[in-house]
Amino acid sequence: MTIRSAFDKELQELRDNVLRLGGMVDAAIGLSIQALKERDQVLAQQIIADDDNINELRFKVEEDCVRLIARQQPAARDLRFIVAAMNIVLDLERMGDHAAGIATIVVRMGDEPLLKPLIDLPRMARISREMLQASLDAFLSENAQQAMCIPERDEEVDQLYNQIFRELISYMVEDPRTVTRAMYLLFCAHNVERIADRVTNICERVAFVATLPGAWRRSHPRQARTSGSADSTQLQGITSLVPGTSDLCFQPQEVDHLLEDGTQVESDRMYPVGDGVAFK
Amino acid sequence: MVEKIQVHNLHFYYGDKPALLDISMIIRDRQITALIGPSGCGKSTFLRCLNRMNDTIPGVRLEGRVLLDGQDIYAPNTNVVDLRQRVGMVFQRPNPFPQSIFDNVAFGPRVLGMHRNGNLAGIVEESLRGAALWDEVKDDLGQDALSLSLGQQQRLCIARAIAVKPEVILMDEPCSALDPIATLEVEELMQRLKENYSIVIVTHNMQQAARASDWTGFFWLGELVEFGATQDIFTRPSQALTENYITGRAG
Fold it and tell me: Does ipTM come in above 0.95?
């Protein structure tokens, strides 16, 4: 027992709650793909309803963090851990929204037959979930090196997304009557792609807890990758063709980053908080 | 940033018992340097080495060098009275003389003969303003200093310290006897004082070090475990021992 055993117990509870939230989000992603594959609208409705539990736990964790900061005056690693937990639950909650977004598409699709068999999309989801699970493991073990290996897999997800994107574009070009059904699948894929992106945020936070900030800042994986953002622009063009879908896309913003020492790093694409596909 | 005090390989012994082991540190000009560590770790001993307050203790021995503006303060030709005028001190418990407010602040200038070159009342007012006490006491400078609140007494001691125009102010747990509001007032005052003085503060209150200082040194068993920018020490210290101490898991 340390001289701060009560505080340590609260930090442990915080860690447990972040992991519990991670488990809920992981399950929601898995179920949303299952609902899509099986066209199970009841399951989809359930996922949408259960998203409230995810939101609730996220706010509870945030409140716990604020309380710990106010009452325990954490410093150094404890402080970094609490700040990281606040950021991670935000990302997890948004990932839950993406899962609920897929479920909402399943409901919207109704009984309309799928445009094509689902092959790459479940693979994307599988990789994204493996990344999420690995990031939560790294968070639990506070293993920064393990965490920073995970974002590499985001490339696989992006490649699959680009493949799906090109394929669905061909469908739409060949036969405009497929546009609506293609868009549904495209938005599902887009939700999964964003989930994987958010896993990389979690990995950066794990590195932030364990090491110097340079480690997570400079290894930002999105800087090397532009395909996702190019697709987003194209996606916007397409939404203008399909009535009622313009609100389903988002506009990436150019943001210049300033490091603490005042040096400016290359412009990176940042996404506004309300990104992703809001089907609610 | 200008290096006000340089400490090189300082060892200090009470008799045969070592109290400080090979301390090297830079105190920067017009910055606040906080010294933290558990009781008995040597931080107050170190502070008192900076204006030779330990000289009067029998049986002590010091090795290493302490340079004030590049001059060794332990050199044989050092005038200790001049040194202590340049490096003033504020103690843990407010210790005003049992005299009027005016006489407390005027004490140092009178002893040093500063009043002969200028007006004493002006020095007293300037010092009391500098210590953020003027507005509270200006109407009755003749009142007994001991009738002030503890927080006011401590600010009076700071006024007394700055009345002799020091360059460095050493503070040995200046807020440990004060309530939270008086503590914040002293911290606020420190931020103003650092525009003109270098401040070194020993504190047991780690939040105070985090709030008020620019640089922090962590002492442990007579050694300086880590010294660095306060924001680094309290967010990402480089030593595990520092981490354990400031997170409350050691000491």
Answer: no
The CA–CA distances, whole Å, from A23 to A45, A89, A104, A137, B248 equal 19, 12, 21, 11, 32
pLDDT-above-90 percentage for chain B: 90
CA distances from A73 to A79, A115, A156 (A): 8, 56, 42
Residue A132: which residues within 8 A CB-CB, separation 6 or more?
Answer: A22, A25, A26, A29, A95, A195, A199, A202
Could you say which DSSP state residue B100 is in? Answer: B
CB-CB neighbors (< 8 A) of A73 in chain B:
206-207
* Closest approach of A23 to chain B, Cα-based (Å): 30
Q: What is the pLDDT of residues B32-68, one digit of tens each?
A: 999 999 999 999 999 999 999 999 899 999 999 999 9
What is the pLDDT at residue A246?
A: 41
A51-76: pLDDT as tens digits: 999 999 999 999 999 999 988 899 99
| Count of A-B CB contacts under 8 Å | 33
- Report the candidate in B167, B248, B168 with the shortest Cα–Cα distance to residue B210: B248
Domain extent listing, chain B: 3-95+168-246
Chain A residues interacting with chain B (CB cutoff of 8 angstroms):
2-4, 7, 73-80, 212-213
Task: Tell me the chain A residues in contact with residue B206 when contact means C-beta distances shorter than 8 Å.
Answer: 73, 75
CB-count exposure of residue A95 (10 Å: 0-12, 13-18, 19+): buried
**pLDDT (tens digit per residue) in A158-217:** 999 999 999 999 999 999 999 999 999 999 999 999 999 999 999 999 999 987 454 444
> In chain A, what residues touch B237 (CB-CB under 8 Å)?
76
Mean pLDDT of chain B: 94
Which residues of chain B have a CB within 8 Å of the CB of A3? Answer: 248-249
Q: Is B246 on the interface with A (CB under 8 A)?
A: yes
Is B243–A77 a contact, with Cβ atoms under 8 angstroms apart? yes
Is the Cβ pair B247, A77 closer than 8 Å? yes
Angstroms from B247 CA to nearest CA on chain A: 6
By C-alpha distance, the chain B residue nearest A72 is: B247
CA separation for the pair B217, B20 (Å, rounded): 13
Residue count of chain A, please give it.
280
Buried b (16+ CB within 10 A) or exposed e, B212-234: bbbbbbbbbebbbbbbbebeebb
Task: Compare CB distances from B243 to A3, A76, A212 and report the shortest one's residue.
Answer: A76
CATH class, range B3-95+168-246? alpha beta
Name the residue type at position A211.
T
Closest CA to A92 of A3, A27, A36: A27
Is A7 in contact with B248 (Cβ distance < 8 A)?
yes
What is the spatial distance between Cα A191 and Cα B83, in angstroms, rounded to a whole number? 70
Closest residue in B to A211 (Cα) is B236
What domains are defined for chain A? Answer: 5-270 (1.20.58.220)
